[in-house]
Every structure is written in structure tokens, then in C-alpha cells.
Amino acid sequence: MLDYIIAIILGILMGVVSGITPGLHVNTIGIILFSISDELLTYTNDLTFCTFLVSMSICHAMIEFIPSLLLGIPEEDSILTIQPGHNLLFQGKGKKAIRLISLGGYFSIIFLILLMPLIMLLLPLIYNMLKNHIGIILLITMIIMMFFFNKKEKRLKNILILLTSGILGIFVLKSNFGNNLALMIMLSGLFSVSNLLYSINSKSKIPPQNKNKNIIINSEFKKSAIAGSISGCVLGLLPGLGPAQGSIIAQSITLNKNINSEEFLITNSGVNISDTLFSLISIYLINNPRSAISVYIGNIMPNISIEEVIFFILVSLTSVSIATVISIKIGDHMIDNMIKIDYNKLNYIIIASLTLIIILFTFFTNDSLYYALLCYMTSISLGLIVNSLNLNKSSLMGVLIVPSIITYLGLM
Predict the structure, then answer these.
(1) In the chain, what are the helix, strand and coil shares in percent, each to the nearest 5?
(2) For the chain, which terminus, N or C, has the lower number of CB atoms within 10 Å?
(3) Which of 283, 394, 313, 295 is nearest to 115 (CA)?
(4) What's the N-to-C CA distance of the chain in angstroms?
(5) pLDDT for 121 beyond 80
(6) Enclosing domain of residue 56
(7) pLDDT (tens digit per residue) in 124-182
(8) Among candidate residues 72, 83, 71, the one with its CA nearest the CA of residue 386
(9) 52/49 Cα distance (integer angstroms)
(10) Would you say residue 289 has pLDDT above 70?
(11) What domain count does the chain have?
(12) How many Cα atoms occupy the beta-carbon half-sphere of 212 within 13 Å?
């Protein structure tokens, strides 16, 4: 029993480190540990080792929102929180935003656990029915997103942005870039650097934060958290999509055309946390691990039992409870210190750092620096257009959704 407690604690600590460190993904740590798992398993057993991995991935999913929300540094799972997170930060509601994300993720995973008996009964049946029609389902979802959730006067502009970003995604993902570099180029330009440049041009300054940071767990909060939880399940049926796209699906589930920044943060956090747990459950239910961590667990424990699945659910519940408190504490501390520094200088430093990382990454992978910078500048320009026209940044998710649709329809 003590081994499992230590594994949970170490997993949480490692999840905090990976979540708060820009560019350090939990999958990077996972592949390093998996590559030496034979040696590690001489000191412990497979269940204890996988307990560490589960705890780390759940905690990372909670903490990784903080750099995106406060600094605008993109991660694929949390890119859509940059715009609504900054909106609340500049309204003096940064600490409230941290609580919305933390508690939104917590309540979503609670709801997912309550749904577990129904999920275990229905998911294999639904998956077998839908697995050959994923491209059509994605296409219908995109059409609903464009025509139902956009105001009439902005609909055409959003459709053009979605299609343009989709074309960009096809060119970049079809290039010789590795997946990590391709995503870094597109996501940094579309969601991070464009936002930071727009903030600099607007001479933005972080205002004093409101002392009232309490949130009300009302029907809208619960609705957003439940939508995030259900969308996390839907992602289990739609391989190739991540939590960012799941947030768009969640908006379709709530049928809320006018979702505000607070509701969006709750939903996005709920999707990310629920998807992390659901990825683990998918190993047992449909033999389809949805994340790198779940692949490693599936290889270490190839004959996972229902008892072990239930144990991992309890580990996840313990980890997310502790991670919720840690997330709020770290977020508050970072906001208190950000107010004291020159925000424009910080933006310049982040932009320079992201650009340098892309250049170095391109150099070390022997890819074309000219083509990388061209795609990077195009991404930044497209992101700035969306900011200037005051459009929803979710339209830029065409960069991932359109290539996914084309791939599943067999057109690419």
C-alpha cells in the first residue's frame, strides 16, 4: 500500500514539473521512463509503475493550463484557453480563471466516474458502430460549428478563417517536418505569438486583480463541466482529435451559441481532464489507447483487468483532488508576481524564446529553416487577422480539424 502512495505523490510532483514547464510534455517524460521500464521494474512492480504514470498524466492535464492561460505559451491540449484566459486576466479576474479551470476539471472527472457503469456498457457497442464513419462525423461537427455557433454577420469570415487555417495545416502536416515541430510552428504562431503581438500593440497592462476570486457552482457551471466530461468520452470514439477540438464538440453539446469566457474555460478543462482518464479506460473497453501514456500502460500491463481499471480510477480521483489545490496555489502565486513585472517586456521575451526554440528545433532536425519560418510567419499573420477582426479563435482549429477530416475520408 505504501508503494502506491509514494507512486501517487511522485507522479503528482512530476506532473507539476511537466505541466508548469513550457515545452516539457508529459509524453516526453513517459517515453523516457518507458524506454528504461525493464530496469525500473526490477525495483518495483508493474501496477506501482503504472500508478505513477496515471498520477503524473492526470496532474499534468490540470497544471498545463497555467502557462497557456497566464503567459500565452501554447500546448496542443490547452491552446484554446489562451484567448478567454487573457480576457479574464485583463478584467482583473485571473485568479477566478484559475479556479474555473481547476474546479471545472475536477467536477468533470467526478461526473465521468459517475457515468462509468453506463460507459462500460455502451462504449464498445457505439465504437463498433461509428469507427468506419469518423470522417463523416467530423465533417458534420465542423459544419454545425460554423453555421450554428457563429453570428450571421461573422459567419462568412469565420468559415474563411477555418478553411484557410485548414489549408495551412495540410501544407505543414504534409511537409517533412516531424509532428512535434509542425505543431509547434502552427500553434505558436496562430494562438500564442499573434496574441502576444496584439497585446503589445494594444499596450496591454495587467490590471490589479479582484480580491473576490470566489466562483459560484450554479447550473451553468455544472452544464459546462458535464459537457466537457461527455466530450472527453466522445473523443474516445474519434481518434486523431485532441481536447482542443473536443471543446468545440462540447459547445455543440450545450447548444450554447453565446458561450462566455468563463464557461469556455470550464468546458476546455473538463474535456482535457476527462480525456486523460478516458484514454486509460479505453485500453480495457475497446483496446484503443488514446494517448501516449495509455499506450505505455497498455504495453506494461497487456492483460489489464477490471479490478485494475477501477484501481486506476481511484488513483485518478486522488490525483485530481490534490492537483486541484496545487493548481490554485501555483496560479495565484504566478499572478501575484506577474503584476509586479513589465508585461510588454515579458511578452517580448516569450516571443523571442518561442522563435528561438523553433529555429533551434528546425536546425537540430535538419529541416528547412526557410520553410519553417515561412509557415511560422503565415501562422502569426492568420492569428493577427482573427484578433483584428474580433473573431473566435476556435475557427483557427481548422488547422487540425480539416486535415483530420481529409485523412479519415481517405483524401490525403
Answers:
(1) 75, 0, 25
(2) N
(3) 313
(4) 50
(5) yes
(6) 2-408
(7) 888 788 777 878 887 887 787 777 656 677 788 888 998 999 999 999 888 878 766 88
(8) 83
(9) 5
(10) no
(11) 1
(12) 3
